[in-house]
Amino acid sequence: MKIERTFEGEEKNYIALRNFAFDQGVALFGVADVRQLREEFFALSQPVIERLNYGISLAVRLSDAVIEGIEDRPTKLYFYHYRQLNLSLDQLALRITDFIQKEGGRALPIASSQIIDWEKQKGHLSHKKVAVEAGLGWIGRNNLLVNSRFGSRIRLVTILTDFPLKTGPREGLGCGDCKACIAVCPAGAIKERKEDFDHLSCYRQLDCFRKKCRIGHHICGICVKACKMKNL
Question: Is residue 1, in this structure, part of any structural domain at all?
Answer without folding.
Answer: no
